[in-house]
Amino acid sequence: MKKTALITGISGQDGAYLGQFLLNKNYKVIGSDRRSARSVNWRLRRLGIENKLIYEEMELGEIYEIQRVFKKYKIDEVYNLAAQSFVGASFNSPLNTSNITGLGTLRILETIRSLNPKIKFYQASSSEMFGDVLERKQKETTPLNPQSPYAISKVFSHYITQNYRNSYGMFASSGILFNHESPLRGEEFVTRKIIIGLIKILKNDIKYFELGNLYAKRDWGYAKEYVEAMWKMLQVKKPSDYVIATGKTYTIKKFIDIATNYLNMNVKWIGKGLNEKLIDIKNKKTIIKINPKFFRPSEVNFLVGNFSKAKKELGWKPKTNLKKLIKIMIDDELKYYN
Ligand code: NDP
Ligand code: GDR
Question: Looking at the domain assignment, is residue 243 inside a domain?
Answer without folding.
Answer: yes
